[in-house]
């Protein structure tokens, strides 16, 4: 099993930045790919970004390209999501995900962290 714990959410004004972190523990050999999803109120959970173990392969949803950057530190079993130029429509609960792959569905989920962007 793998446990994922997110941190770094909060309230920020539009145009601001936040950095989310997700620390993995347990059988981290199973975290070949790590990533982020988000779910806004009344909407389906959607993919945001993912990154391969090497860090060489990264993929982003069109809605966040150029604004969000995903990275990982394998020595710390941690994945990060740097979010810049935040918009009110980025408001959601952000979930860390991990597995062999994370799209369309990961093997493991974190508990989620709230990000609220005010206009």
Model description:
There is one protein chain. The protein has no helices and 11 strands. It is mostly beta strands and 119 residues long. The strands form 2 sheets. Strands 2, 4, 5, 6, 9, 10 and 11 form a 7-stranded mixed β-sheet that branches. It has a 4-stranded antiparallel β-sheet with strand order 1-3-8-7, with no helix packed on it.
Total helices: the number is: 0
Q: What does the overall shape look like?
A: globular
Q: Name the helicity range.
A: under 10%
Estimate the mean pLDDT confidence.
96
Radius of gyration: 13 Å
> What gap, in angstroms, lies between the N and C termini?
40 Å
What is the SS-derived class? mainly beta
Element pattern in H and E: EEEEEEEEEEE
Number of DSSP strand runs: 11
Give the biggest beta sheet: 7 strands, mixed
Q: Outline the low-pLDDT stretches.
A: none
Report strand %: over 45%
TL;DR of this structure?
By secondary structure, the chain is mainly β. It is built from no helices and 11 strands.
Question: Which properties best describe this structure?
Answer:
mainly beta; four-stranded antiparallel β-sheet; globular; single chain; 119 residues
List the helices and strands and how they pair.
Blueprint: E1 2-7, E2 10-13, E3 18-26, E4 33-39, E5 46-52, E6 58-60, E7 68-73, E8 78-83, E9 92-99, E10 108-109, E11 113-118
Parallel strand pairs: 2-11
Antiparallel strand pairs: 1-3, 3-8, 4-5, 4-9, 5-6, 7-8, 9-10, 9-11
């Amino acid at each position: 099993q793998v446990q994922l714990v997110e941190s770094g959410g909060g309230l920020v004004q539009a145009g601001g930045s936040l950095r989310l972190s997700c620390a993995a523990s347990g059988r981290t050999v199973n975290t070949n790919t790590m990533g982020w999803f988000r779910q806004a109120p009344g909407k389906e959970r959607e993919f945001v970004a993912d990154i391969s173990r090497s860090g060489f392969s990264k993929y982003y949803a069109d809605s966040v390209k150029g604004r969000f950057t995903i990275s990982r530190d394998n020595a710390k079993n941690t994945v990060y999501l740097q979010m810049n130029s935040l918009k009110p429509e980025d408001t959601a609960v952000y979930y860390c995900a991990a597995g062999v792959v994370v799209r369309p569905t990961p093997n493991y989920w974190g508990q989620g962290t709230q990000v609220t962007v005010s206009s």
